[in-house]
Amino acid sequence: MTNLPTYPDLHGTSVFITGGGSGIGAALTEGFLRQGARVAFVQRSDASAFCDAMQAKTGSRPLFIACDITDIPALRAAVATAAAAHGPIRVLVNNAANDMRHDTLKVTEEFWDWSMAINLKSYFFAAQAVLPGMQAAGGGSIINFTSISYMFGAAGYPAYATANSGINGLTRTLAREFGPDRIRVNALAPGWVLTQKQKDLWVTPEGLAAHVERQCLKDTLAPEDIVGGVLFLASDSSKMMTGQALVIDGGVVVTG
Fold it and tell me: PANTHER family, from UniProt (predicted)?
């Protein structure tokens, strides 16, 4: 990850990441720490060992706040804790999600609500929590993780794909509403990133081979491949980019 470009404006910036201690989120935390940013992140499971590892690797320690993002009061409190520690949050990365596979005919109302709570509702309320601070500070960047799943109609997780599509609507309306405050809101849609969770639960040789065949680029995606796009969207290098969806998927879907 040391070959990433340096964005001087990110040095000292207060960054808040949901799900920042594992998978793609862990790579994002490291990426921002290497920029000299002040990083706070939330997740349910203990991340003390990860914070120790980050301090050893980067010389900086992220602030870990234990939080279930479906608990909106707890999420708001975590944002307030991070802002008190690091200053007003200037970069929010809504990264946490759950792509549990599910059968349309077996989805219950309870499962649907649970999926929306994690994959969409938490994004809105995290953004709502940071927006006043960004307004007062004169601007900021919100990056909402979506997915290519809804773009090519992937089967096997309709609630998740629906939330992904909703994230793009949320991104565009917030970009329009808060653009006058110099707050930029963009979405980032990864392809199939081979996190440890994906390898443990979903990856099969046949399924992975079929997916790579759909890609223009025939290499598999790793969490580190997503970091550069997020840093770009967070930095002033993208200061006139908002309401957009940046796709990093090896070329499964093409846009424009």
Answer: OXIDOREDUCTASE, SHORT-CHAIN DEHYDROGENASE/REDUCTASE FAMILY (AFU_ORTHOLOGUE AFUA_5G02870), SHORT-CHAIN DEHYDROGENASE_REDUCTASE FAMILY PROTEIN
**pLDDT value, residue 234:** 98
Distance in angstroms between the alpha carbons of the first and the last residue of the chain: 29
Kindly tell me if the per-residue pLDDT of 2 is higher than 70: no
Angstrom distance (rounded) from CA 61 to CA 10: 16
Is 0.90 topped by the overall pTM? yes
* CATH number of the domain where residue 47 is located: 3.40.50.720
The residue length of the chain stands at 256
Angle, helices 23-34 vs 48-58, to 10°: value is: 30
Q: Is residue 67 part of a domain?
A: yes
Q: How confident is the model at residue 156 (pLDDT cuts 50, 70, 90)?
A: confident
Type of residue numbered 217? L
pLDDT of residue 70: 98
pLDDT in tens, 55-84: 999 999 999 999 999 999 999 999 999 999
C-alpha–C-alpha distance, residues 171 and 90, integer Å: 16
- Domains in the chain, number: 1
Q: Which residues are catalytic?
A: 160
